[in-house]
Transcription factor A, mitochondrial (Anoplopoma fimbria), 293 residues
Amino acid sequence: MAPFSLVTASVSWLAKSFSVLSSTNTLARCASVLPSAYVNPVRCLTSQASGPPKRPLNGYLRYVLQQQPVITRHNPEIKSVDIIRKIAQQWRTMSPEQKRPFEEASVLAREQFKVDLQHYQAQLTPAQVQQQAQEKRQRMAKRKAIRKKRELNNLGKPKRPRSPFNIFMSEHFEEARGTTTQAKMKSLLEDWRNLFSHQKQVYMQLAEDDKIRYKNEMKSWEDHMMEIGREGLIREQTLSTKKKPATKTSAAKTGTNAKAKAVKKATATGKSKPTRKTAKSSSVKTVRTTKKT
């Protein structure tokens, strides 16, 4: 009779073999039911939805991926920027017949992407759809903020004033302790906390001077934005201060106009009343004279 350990080992081996056979059968069934584009062992064996399909490349980027290793192999000393520039020059000089294979491959990949995207979206739950929509809004807001910041830099918006610690860090960053940027900043923060008050006063005065610089530069920049019609880029507090004098002058004008109208009305009524009194007095005099007679 075989030992008990040998029996258990044979039983475990049989169980593993049956599990392998069952997994291969399930893969075969998945391959027979789904098209070849959807066959993926992870997707078939698990019910969790994987990441969304990647967008296909256009014809030019396909040409770049094909030519980049070739040019790098023949010219190893050229920089990557120069390689891309050279490939772009080649693409511009190519004929439509030479570009057609790359563009046709891009069209086919785009059609396959649409099918894959529909299949992926059909697997999502309502909670996952809501989460993806929220992530998309966040990405759009981030891109909008980046575009706005780039536009402000192009328009020459002044840089914000630096704090005393930032000035101290910029002056002593090179000789700071540590090999990484994070380690250097940590050591500089410790040095800043260990400084005496009279030592920090120097950097505090520099920060105050930088605030004055920022205030003057922002005033001239916002005046220039007003001149070119970009009021939307100006701070709200600046717009409120610029609008207040105009409202005061308009209120003063309306007040003076109201006063002038009131004076005119008073003079008009004052002139008309005496005429009525004189008419009354003349009528009374005539009545008295008639009585005497």
